[in-house]
Write a structure and sequence with these properties.
The structure is a single chain. By secondary structure, this protein is mostly helical. It folds into 2 domains: 44-172, Cytochrome Bc1 Complex, Chain D, domain 2 (Orthogonal Bundle); 203-300, Cytochrome c-like domain (Cytochrome Bc1 Complex, Chain D, domain 2). The protein has 11 helices and 4 strands; from the N terminus they run H-H-E-H-H-H-H-E-H-H-H-H-E-E-H. The chain has helices at residues 3-27, 38-44, 62-72, 74-77, 113-123, 134-147, 208-216, 222-235, 248-256, 259-268, 288-300; strands at 59-61, 156-158, 270-271, 276-277. Strands 1-2 form a two-stranded antiparallel ribbon. A two-stranded antiparallel ribbon has the order 3-4. A hairpin with a 4-residue loop joins strand 3 and strand 4 (276-277). The longest helix is centred in the first third of the chain and has 25 residues, at 3-27. It is elongated, with a radius of gyration of 29 Å. The model is unreliable at 1-25 and 201-217 (pLDDT under 50). It binds heme C (2 copies). One heme C is lined by residues 72-73, 75-77, 87-88, 90, 106, 116, 119-120, 124-127, 140, 144.
């Protein structure tokens, strides 16, 4: 008899437990929170991409922007974008990026006008972020572009023409060709920590055209020029498992698979047994022919 209440109690408990689990399943894995509504998602989903994707309908002129800028931005960024005190400079700075103290502004540094729209819309004015209407953002962005001599004074910015604005420093942004490093933890016979250093100090972050001038003087074959500029970073020292140019044993089996296969691998990229070869080594500005010429040079130098 004395066991009965316990039993009832137990089954009630398990009943409420199973109800709870049921409710939890509905609410999500951890049992709390709720699915975000379309409206809530829209509040967060405000990013704008370089191709203009994500921009809301709207427009604003340089002229409208001037007044707004004076009113809402100039106290910190200066009437001409020159920056007040230590607040960021928004205009000027062209040609200073290689100086000891580069002036990185919207005009001298930024690669896409969409970043300016997104940043302003998301976070400016500093003390009242997201207080501007979409049209006000268009206007004030048009004005900042005007301060950087990127548009004329009668320009009107909208969701269609923003992606067409060519930012001067865009060509100097290049894909980072360094591979992700996947390593196995070393458990015995490992290198001494203080002997480990950076193997390649020549990752070409500079403009490809600029390097070409320097290399052309020393070498003749176009394949070698491309190799030196774009492929040598990995293939000279064997970074990430790349077959070393000049090291016959690294190339023997590859060469026997045929030139065509090697060229295709170099152009399209491939995951082999020693590492990952990114398509065109990450230099997507190279043509297929240029990559093929580099492969020919590399193979010739390695057999
Ligand atoms: C109260 C001062 C203040 C006001 C007003 C203000 N900003 Fe800013 N702005 C800042 C600060 C501070 C930063 C740097 C924030 C950071 O780096 O986190 C900044 C950064 C920026 C940047 C990025 C600069 C860069 O090179 O990284 C842009 C663009 C910008 N503001 C535009 C605007 C515009 C447009 C307005 C007017 C609508 C505005 N700001 C109003 C203080 C202000
Ligand atoms: C980020 C490093 C990296 C860069 C830059 C790079 N490679 Fe490679 N490459 C590799 C790696 C790693 C392999 C070996 C992949 C494997 O077989 O596992 C490889 C393999 C190759 C092979 C052998 C293909 C085969 O079929 O075995 C060729 C040819 C080649 N690369 C050409 C190039 C050319 C041409 C360039 C410059 C345009 C270049 N690579 C730039 C990392 C790189």
């Amino acid at each position: 008899m004395s066991n009965l209440p316990k039993l009832v109690c137990f089954s009630l408990l398990s009943l409420s437990f199973s109800l709870m689990t049921h409710a939890a399943e509905k609410a999500g894995y951890y049992g709390y929170g709720k699915a975000a509504s379309q409206e809530e998602i829209a509040g967060w989903d405000i990013d704008v991409r370089p191709d203009g994707m994500g921009l809301p309908d709207g427009s604003g002129s340089v002229e409208d922007g001037e007044m707004l800028y004076e009113d809402k931005c100039a106290e910190c960024h200066g009437s001409f974008g020159e920056g007040v005190g230590r607040f960021p400079v928004l205009a000027g700075g062209e040609g200073t990026l290689t100086d000891l103290r580069p002036s990185k502004t919207v005009g001298s540094f930024w690669a896409h006008a969409s970043t300016l729209w997104d940043y302003t819309h998301r976070s400016m004015p500093f003390t009242e972020p997201q207080s501007l209407s979409d049209n006000e953002v268009y206007a004030v962005v048009a004005y900042v572009l005007y301060l950087n001599d990127l548009v004329d004074d009668d320009f009107e910015l909208n969701q269609r023409n923003l992606a067409e604005i060519e930012m001067p420093n865009k060509p100097n942004f290049v894909p980072d060709p360094r591979p992700d490093v996947q390593n196995v933890r070393c458990m015995k016979g490992c290198k001494k920590a203080n002997s480990i250093g950076i193997a390649s100090s020549s990752v070409p972050l500079d403009n490809i055209e600029m390097q070409k001038v320097a290399v052309d003087e020393k070498v003749t074959s176009p394949g070698e020029v491309i190799y030196t500029q774009s492929c040598g970073i990995c293939h000279k020292g064997g970074i990430g498992g790349a077959p070393i140019v000049g090291e016959k044993s690294d190339w023997k089996s590859r060469i026997s698979a045929g030139m065509l296969t090697m060229k295709q691998h170099a152009i399209r990229g491939f995951q082999g047994s020693t590492g990952f070869m990114p398509a065109k080594g990450g230099f997507m500005n190279l043509s297929d022919d240029q990559v093929s010429e580099a492969v020919e040079f590399m193979v010739e130098a390695s057999q």
